[in-house]
């Protein structure tokens, strides 16, 4: 992506912004024929001069908000002031106007293509992050006395469980806490409650770096927080009652939460449910009951287009596997200088926590990496160590640069 | 603003983006001395060529999301791909990184300056719109049996009341419904419950265009939804227990909700309160308990800077009064061709609903205005007629153009 942006963006600009083309050509004709070639080159280059060249860009390993596809940022930049000739920014559009309606409808239909979501499911663009869904889910599909099961493989699953205690009778049927959240349970050994309304999992634990590679069969419904691996690989949506995800890892900026919910689960919320947490309100109004986070939804739409242009999630997953492989290999082949605490079979493709054998070198590692324009490699404050988040938009070049740096760092400090 | 943008933006770009300056000069030096002047002019002009010229911009009278200051959009455009040399977009920044921390802290401190907010109040940047606050307020400051009073001057006040019925014992002590929401009550005649936990008002009704010019004295606390007139004029915050506002009218894009709450009211939420609706969680974490709507907060910050640069809210109010005056005058001096349903003394400076004596001409009015690049003048579907929303960022030139069009339309159809 890093390299493609340079070549694609000017074209995008000319295609999407006819006025630029006008500007360029009129400027072009303002100069004598003998000078036109050089001038027209400068003008077409100058269409992106508001942003510095690619080499000024850092490799951002933040866990979210996280790096976005460079060509998506270039397109957003070119459309920010005047969206496709509408005479206004997407940020200024009435959410009920034809321009924004076309944006949100396209975003939904592209997401349905990416994940092959059937009409049995509603796709909602909401606010409040996964943390709001921790309450919305039991409020929408449970009665106060309903038992529900939670598998807790990290901090986020634990937070989801704790919030649910306010609205139903959740039970932790498996916790990885005693092993410092480094594994996923054996599904056959799970002690599920046959009356459980749903089984909740966090498909990828952003902080601990453990990821479900397959999914347990629930007594009733499977509900998954996919915030940090959403759209990073194909998923059989039909296996789930609800999938929810904050956008700020793989698909957009923070402030948008996507909920994919089976339609037959909608419409029986508890009486105490705030109207903004009621799925029926949003489903009946196509996510436009009140003003949605319009610009964030627009950005997600640009990312969905980019993922489809890459060949869809099958191709995206291949790239993510390759990136993760070279990083885990570097860790495993360091003779213990670097260490991954996570069981090999469930290591996350998205978030790669690792420690140094000599813990006293970790601060130096982060500091030197930052000097090399590789930022946000410090592990979450709750677990320490390092963490490299390598979401969809992290270029292979970024992981290769990190791996080269790790080997050099080891050579100097090993 | 419309005119200033042309001159200020290139300077902003050079100041905020040293790399552009580098790019320009290197391009500059690539040409023979005899050509430098003309080339450097082209390059400096081309720094804004990604956006069409100002005259391509529409006048957007939408009620929200609404028009934003043109110079703010230009600045956001220039910083979108690489924020002030950070090597990343604001949309990609970790909300716990030093870059975003500086953005949210500056936004809060500028808002405190604008409204002269004392340390007795917390300023929270949240999600979910005013509609989420309709639940958050009683959940945070009431027990289920607490009586509270609502003055209902329009659709939003009514929605706030209905949501509160889930969490406390609200009573409508005055409603303008029988008069189609065209007035504000006489404060002396209000039958307030002396035990009422708070008195709720909607300071400006976006749909009906009625605005409180002064505020009633509550039995206990005054709580105000200021979504559609927030930062449009000075407000004595010390008169209020809670002020809340969706950003998407006067201060930013949709997806950000600002809550100004007296600190002594924080920390006693009902047990059923979703964690994301608990003011204490957000106050204790400086609005960073979970990932906030970072880019929206950044945009609000740019708007706050712009409002301060205009001289603060005293100066902003003067401009708003002038804009509203010429529009209401045009209506009142039309010999009944145009009609404002709202009592003169409480007409909103922000949202100006009006009807045509010949209702059959309204569709034509909206259609012809759109041809003249004045959009979103159709009244809310619930009340019909027309509505011109003229928030802070609507230039005087936009209102003058609308008034000229109204007179011409009357001459042709009167």
User: CATH class of the domain at 83-309 in chain A, anyone?
Assistant: Alpha Beta
Number of helices of chain A: 12
CATH-wise, what's the superfamily of the domain at 83-309 in chain A? Type I PLP-dependent aspartate aminotransferase-like (Major domain)
* Average pLDDT reading of chain A: 89
Q: What's the assembly state of these chains?
A: homodimer
Radius of gyration of CA atoms of chain A, rounded to a whole number: 23 Å
User: Uncertain regions of chain A: pLDDT < 50 for 5+ in a row?
Assistant: 1-53
What does this structure look like?
The structure is a homodimer of 414-residue chains. The first copy, chain A, has 414 residues and is α/β, with parallel strands linked by helices. Among the domains of chain A are: 18-23 and 30-56, no CATH class; 83-309, Aspartate Aminotransferase, domain 2, CATH 3.40.640.10. In chain A, 39% of the residues lie in helices and 14% in strands. The first copy, chain A, contains twelve helices and twelve strands. Chain A has helices at residues 2-16, 18-29, 33-46, 70-79, 98-115, 129-141, 155-164, 279-284, 294-309, 313-332, 362-371, 396-413; strands at 59-60, 121-126, 147-152, 169-175, 198-202, 221-225, 242-246, 257-262, 338-339, 351-356, 374-375, 386-389. The first copy, chain A, has a seven-stranded mixed sheet with strand order 2-8-7-6-5-3-4. In chain A, strand 3, helix 7 and strand 4 form a beta-alpha-beta unit. In chain A, helix 2 packs antiparallel against helix 3 (33-46), helix 5 packs across helix 9 and helix 6 (129-141) packs across helix 7. The longest helix of chain A is centred in the last third of the chain and has 20 residues, at 313-332. Chain A starts with a helix and ends with a helix. Mean pLDDT of chain A is 89; it is low at 1-53. At the A-B interface, helix 2, helix 3, helix 4, helix 6 and helix 9 of A face helix 2, helix 3, helix 4, helix 6 and helix 9 of B.
